Amino acid sequence: MSENTPQYVIAIDQGTTSSRAIVFDHDGNIVSVGQLEHEQIFPRAGWVEHDPEEIWTNVREVVGTALSKANLTRHDIAAVGITNQRETAVVWDKTTGKPVYNAIVWQDTRTQPIVNELAAEGGLDRFKDKTGLPLATYFSGTKIKWILDNVEGAREKAERGDLLFGNTDSWVIWNLTGGTNGGVHVTDVTNASRTLFMDLETLQWDDEILGIFGVPRSMMPEIKSSSEVYGTVAGSQLLRETPVAGILGDQQAATFGQAAFGKGAAKNTYGTGCFLIFNTGEEIVKSENGLITTVAYKLGDAAPVYALEGSIAVTGSLVQWLRDNLGMINSAPEIEQLAEKVEDNGGVYIVPAFSGLFAPYWRSDARGAIVGLTRFVNRNHIARAALEATAFQTREVLDAVNADSGVPLTELRVDGGMVANDALMQFQADILGVDVVRPEVIETTSLGAAYAAGLAVGYWNDTDELGRNWNEDKRWTPQMDQAEQDRQMRQWKKAVTKTFDWVDDDVK
Ligand SMILES: Nc1ncnc2c1ncn2[C@@H]1O[C@H](COP(=O)(O)OP(=O)(O)OP(=O)(O)O)[C@@H](O)[C@H]1O
Ligand SMILES: [Mg+2]
Questions:
Q1: Running DSSP on this structure, what letter comes out for residue 355?
Q2: How far apart, in whole angstroms, are the C-alpha atoms of residue 108 and residue 221?
Q3: CB 70 within 8 A of CB 62
Q4: Does the pLDDT at position 73 exceed 70?
Q5: 417 lines ligand 1 (CB under 6 A)
Q6: CA 219 to ligand 1 centroid distance, Å
Q7: Strand partners, 77
Q8: DSSP letters spanning 66-129
Q9: How crowded is residue 74: how many other Cβ atoms within 10 Å of its Cβ?
Q10: Could you give the C-alpha distances from 79 to 6, 66, 189, 455, 469, in angstroms and in order?
Q11: 3-class DSSP state for residue 292?
Q12: 48 FRET partner, CA 20 to 30 A, in 176, 262, 440, 483?
C-alpha cells in the first residue's frame, strides 16, 4: 500500500452489555480499544431494556477513545464495520430521531402472550420453513409488535410512515450517516434473518408474515449484503466521510473473525450467552434437532452463505448474576478462584433458564433452577456449577450440530470473554470429548466486522487472505474418561427437566 492509503479499519461492536470500538491493522491485530458499558434496565421480571440514546452516545465516545489512544484521525481509517447484539429491537421516529420506547433486548420474554396467540394457528413452527426460526420471544418480530400495540400513538405513527425499526446495527448506522439529516436505513442479511420476517431464499422481507404481525413494511430497513459501502459517516462526526462498509450480527461476525468460511467450519462464542455456528455453505439446512437456520454472511453480489446455529441465552450472564445479584464475587474472573477450591461440583447443577431455554429445547415455560443442594454444598460448588452450566449447554448444542450434519466435529474453535477462563475451557474439552482451540485474537466479533468492511473497500482482497491471519494460541485436550462424561451428562439432562413447566398462565 502507498503511504497515503489509510492503514487501519475500525469496528464498532454494539453488544448487549457494552459498546466497543476496535482499530485493527492489516494483519488483523488489535491496535486500540474503546469500551463503555450501558445500563441494563429490568422494569419487571422477564423484561430487559436498553436506552438507545445512551447506546448511541457511548458509540460515539468509544470511537473517539479508540482513535485517540492510537493517535489516529479519520484519514488513517479505510472503513468502518458494524457488528451488534442481534434481535434487540429499536423503534424510532424518523422525523425527530427519538426512540418511541426503550430498546427491547433479545433476552426479554414479555412477548410470550403474542407468541402464544400467533402459535394458536399453525403452531410454533408455522414460519420455520420460510425464516428458519421457531416462533419465540427471542427474535425481533414480536418485540416490534409489542411496541406498536402498547406504546401510545405508535401504531398511527407507524402507519403514517414516520417510524423506523432496526436492530442496533440499523440504529447506529442511521445515526452515524446523519440521522434526521439523511441517515441511511439499512441492515444486512444476518441481522434481517433474526427478525422472523425475512425469507431465507429471497433475502427479502415477507409481506405475508409482516401482515400477520401487523408491522408496516415502511418501518423495515433495506436488506443489504454484509460487505458493501452503505454510506459515509456524516460531516458532524469524527470519522466524517469514512465509508461504512460492513454489517454482521455479532455471532456471524465472530464466525467471520474466526475465518470459519468453509462448509463444515464452526465456532462457539462465550459471552453474555453462547452461540455455536456451523457453516453449511450455500445450502439452507433445516435442523431436526433444535437448531435454527440463519444466514452466515453475504459478501457483496456473491451468493449468501448459510449456517445452523445453537443459541444459548445464559452463560457469561450467569457469572454476572452471581456478581451483581448474589454478590458472591466482585468481578467475573474471580469465579475461577472459587471454583478451583473444590474438586467437583459437589452434586450441584445450575440450569440458568432465566429467559426460558433456547437451543436445543426452545422451552419458554422453563425458569432457572439450582438442583442437587445438600448441607455439604458451599459457594465454591455453586461457582463451579455456574461455570459447568456453560460447558453442559454447549455440549447439548454440539450434539445437535453433529446429529444434523451427520459428520461429528473433531475440534471446536472458541472465542469471547469467557475463554480467558482456563478451568472452564478444560472442563469444556472434557465434557465434549474433542479439542477446544482458542485463536490469538479472541475479539473475533469486532475482527469479523472489520474484515467485512475492509473487504468491501479493497483493504483486504479475499477470504483466503483473512484465513492466513488466523493463528492458534492455546488448545485444550479432553482428559475425562468416558464413563464420567456420561454420568455428568446424565445428571445435567436430569437437572434440565426440573426447569420445565414452571411458568403458569397466571405467573406475573
Ligand atoms: N474469567 C472469566 N470467567 C468466567 N466468565 C467470564 C470471565 N471473564 C469474563 N466473563 C464473562 O464473559 C462475559 C463477557 O464476555 P464478552 O465480552 O465476550 O461478552 P459479550 O457477549 O461480547 O458482551 P456483549 O453481550 O455486550 O456483546 C461476561 O458475561 C462475563 O461474565
Ligand atoms: Mg459481544
A1: T
A2: 22
A3: no
A4: yes
A5: yes
A6: 33
A7: 8
A8: HHHHTT--GGGEEEEEEEE-SS-BEEEETTT--BSSPEEPTT--TTHHHHHHHHTTT-TTTTHH
A9: 17
A10: 9, 14, 20, 9, 19
A11: strand
A12: 176
Contacts of 346 (CB under 8 A, 6+ apart): 372, 374, 376, 377, 378, 381, 384, 385
What is the DSSP code (8-state) at residue 221?
P
Which of 88, 255, 272, 382 to probe ligand 1 with, by most ligand atoms within 8 A of CB? Answer: 272
* pLDDT tens profile 354-402: 988 998 998 888 999 999 999 999 999 999 999 999 999 999 999 999 9
Q: Which residues pair with 436 in a beta bridge?
A: 412, 476
Nearest listed ligand to the Cα of residue 269: 1
Q: How far apart are CA 136 and CA 392, in angstroms?
A: 23
Give, in degrees to the nearest 5, the angle at Cα 386 between 356 and 422: 130
Number of residues that this document lists for the chain: 508
- Rounded to whole angstroms, the Cα distance separating 119 from 294 reads 21
E strand segments, 395-443: 411-415, 435-439
Task: Answer yes or no: pTM beyond 0.85.
Answer: yes
Q: Whose CA is nearest to atom 17 of ligand 1?
A: 417
Please state the separation of Cα 123 from the chain's center in Å: 26
Residue with cell 450455500: 282
Q: Taking a C-beta distance cutoff of 8 angstroms, is the pair 31, 25 a contact?
A: yes
CB 448 within 8 A of CB 252: yes
Q: Return all residues near 133 (Cβ < 8 A) that are at least 6 apart.
A: 127, 139, 193, 194, 196, 292, 293, 294
C-alpha 383/C-alpha 329 separation (Å) is 9
